Amino acid sequence: MNIPKDPVMLMSYINTQLRDNYDSLDELVKSLGLNEKELTEKMASIGMKYDAELNRFKQ
To answer: What's the predicted TM-score (pTM) here?
Structure first.
């Protein structure tokens, strides 16, 4: 899976995927073959955290 490298573009892409296609971050990373730790660290680098209740990354 080719996902955006830029953290801001990645956040937008991931949040869109979560909103439209996945019920949880766990489901998204398994389906797309991503490393959850690496993804959350990249999001943290721009001040974003995953909110499970909202199923999205936010500040």
So the answer is: 0.92
